[in-house]
Design goal:
The complex is a heterodimer of chains A (138) and B (308). With 138 residues, chain A is of the alpha+beta class. Chain A contains two helices and nine strands. Chain A has two domains: 83 residues, F0F1 ATP synthase delta/epsilon subunit, N-terminal (ATP Synthase, domain 1), CATH 2.60.15; 44 residues. Chain A is globular and about 50 Å long. Chain B is built from five helices and six strands; from the N terminus they run αβαβαβαβββα. The chains are: A alpha+beta (138), B alpha/beta (308). β4 of chain A pairs parallel with β6 of chain B.
Chain lengths: 138, 308
Amino acid sequence: MARTPFRVEVLTPEGLLFDDEVEMLSTRTAVGSIGVLANHAPLLALLEPTELRLYTAGSEVKAFAQGEGYLQVADSRALVLVDEVFEKDELDSSELQSRLDRASERVERAEDDSEEKRQAERERRRYEAFLKLAGRGR
Amino acid sequence: MADKGVQGRISSVKNIEKITRAMEMVAAARLRRAEQRISHLRPYAGAIRRMTRQASEAAGNLPSVPVLAERESVRTAAILLVTGDRGLAGAFNSQIIRAGLRAGGELEAEGKTVVYYASGRRGVSSLTFRKKDLKGEYTGFTDRPAYADARTIASDLTQAFVDGEVDRVDVFYNGYVSALTQEVTRETLLPLQEASIFEGDDDENHGEGDGDQPAGASDSGHSALVEYEPDPEEILQRLVPEYVQISIYRALLESTASEHGARMTAMRNASENAGDLIKDLTLQFNRERQAAITQEIMEVVAGAESLV
């Protein structure tokens, strides 16, 4: 059954990645997995590294690997802000592994309870999540 | 010959003109790239700021999370100066340094301690020269700042704020208006309560391409109806450092574009001046040559006359 489409924008610091009508958006917030349909109540949420799926009209699914970010829903429009995002097909396991190693190294080196440490830990989590997505095949 | 000197000067000014023309063209090409990066970032930066504002209004009285705390009194203020690594860009660097030092002086007059952070070699060297308390220096990237550079600066500043080393963070940079106009811009980043995002006017909307943001999303009017996942406090804990990062990144990018714009203008003026100088010198050279010829003819005529 066709659902009402609504507008979704995906923004990164490097620019606009996606701006189109979709039927459903699915991702994961700090609380848990979430699916957003048209006319969703206004929402502001923290996003965790996960797979971002956009179900565009014609039951096509666009899948991205997304880093931490924010989701804002208002007036039946959704705005996804993420600092890093890859098309799922573009994920490169070896590249991700080396980034993960670098992040782990930084976690080791950073002082406890410093901003540096928190950042490195976030990065480690992000690349762990991306690796899992890349491993799950396409 | 007497005109050797003038001839030498003409050729050296011609060389200078070639260099300034080349620098002008390089700056113009880089300016286009820098402009593009700003226009890509502006929608994201604007959305982060709007979300920060929305969440902090919903959180009401900001909770006692270190990064959100407002200090009872400001004892130490941090000033971040965003300059360039290189000179030859007109007033680009000096106007930032001047504005930063003036603000620092005012704060010191109120009995506060001021510490400086500088990005760009020009700012670093001039603050070192003035023996200012320079807590952080960041150089080597002002031609093409990366997000990671902004993150380094932001995490130092945020850390200093959380640790209570500074109670307030201001940033000074050349805001990019157009290739010809750069505006010294001052933004307060922390504490959040004083931050420039609360000054109402949403300056993010003048950029191109973000005219069709979710319009109602930015207004705080219906904030009571908004769901938060998790609660606004926790969102802010992550959003605030992000907002500091993105604001600094934006300042770096704007400053880079401004630097190229300023250099382009400065170099164009220099090329024009060189052209004028060449014209004057050529005139002088011709005049001297003509005088020498006249002199020689007169000598020949005088010599011939004496033989008759």
